[in-house]
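To: structure subgroup
Subject: Chain for Friday's discussion

All,

I'm putting the inputs and outputs inline so they're searchable in the archive.
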Amino acid sequence: MKFISTRGGGEPQSFIDVLLNGLAPDGGLYVPEAWPELDLERLKSFAGAPYSDVAMEVVKPFIGDEIPAETLQNILRKVYQDNFDHSCVAPLVQISPNTWIMELFHGPTLAFKDYALQLLGHLFDYVLEQRGERVTIVGATSGDTGSAAIEACKGCKNIDIFILHPEGRTSEVQRRQMTTVDAPNVHNIALKGNFDDCQNMVKAMFNDTTFRNEVNLSAVNSINWARIMAQIVYYVTASLALGGPNRKVSFAVPTGNFGNIFAAYAARQMGVPTKRLIIGSNRNDILTRFFETGTMKSENVEPSLSPSMDIQISSNFERYLFDLLDRDAKGLTKLMNSYKDNGSFSIGSEYMAKARREFDARRCPDEQTKGLMTACYNETGYMLDPHTAVGLYAGMQVREDPSVPLVALACAHPAKFPDAVENAIGIRPPLPPHLADLYNRPEHVTALGNDLNTVQYFVLNNIKK
């Protein structure tokens, strides 16, 4: 399997090169040269099998022989058997007839990011040890990616990791999960600005070739293809659990950066039978507006009850646009340049008709988010975090055929957003035992201004030479 840039530059790359480089040198994102096809008949025999065994079937086509099969299988077993607190890893909980919640918060940081980042940490550790190399990882987070990346990399002897979060714009639990980690290779930066500023800062560092080479820069946020690859797995396990491949399933995904829903799209491209892929946006509804109008236009970011989705730049959307434009790299680059220069771009009606066949999108303002959290708890006893509520609301708005299972993704544990949950249902969700003393742990964080030179200077002075 080789990987190409959405912008068309450079030669096709191997999986390991894509893993270590993250962003393509031309500023594009890596995607497979072609989508591999899953052996669905073989997968049927995996119903009820350990999550790690299904993961092996899903990720092996992307990795090929670059990592020995036995080594890869051992890594997957270690990741998904040792680091998750539920035997199913990504269990399904039924909340009404043919409506299911897929709980993606059973990892160490209580968020769906663990499912990919725990794997990335182990892959990085193995590859760097084999090569005798060291990398500097720089990532941006709106809340959950940072803690999951830090948790995955804190013990890696060949990695320095720097995570930027928007100062004052994450929940206290999210912030503390990052800043209370005391490890010499972990560095937290509270950037003055919003998540898009953090994301732009990371991209600027990657686009500075001299700096990138000097610190051997890499990425673990969702621009790294291996993140998407790992997230495909739980769409496959959910499909198998609900009758796939002989039965279609709809997935409703709370979406800001488009990475998680793109993994669902990838699963569909690989043959997983899906009825609808449903995008749930909060008041920062750039994706919903795109599917309504055919124009992607950046507006101001407004704080919401679901802060991890307070985004106006959906980085992974570029991967989907590349496919939507029939893999026309020049056309895609033109759109991305328009967005960078003017804050907007538009798609023709023929392409939009195709996009609307592939995705549905709905917005869920804070009032509806809170209302659904309250109603769900009162009617079923199930506690939703605000992001899960956004996805479930969108799924319920789109759903037409009740015979098709609807799976709404629970991307975070309710205890990560205790104020929003308590405000909705009158109960403050407790942290699980391994995080019970989180509020008492000392924090380690540096506040920096939104200035590229300042951030680069901090990185240069804090890496292990």
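Points worth raising on Friday:
The first strand starts at residue 3 and ends at 5.
The mean pLDDT is 94.

D.
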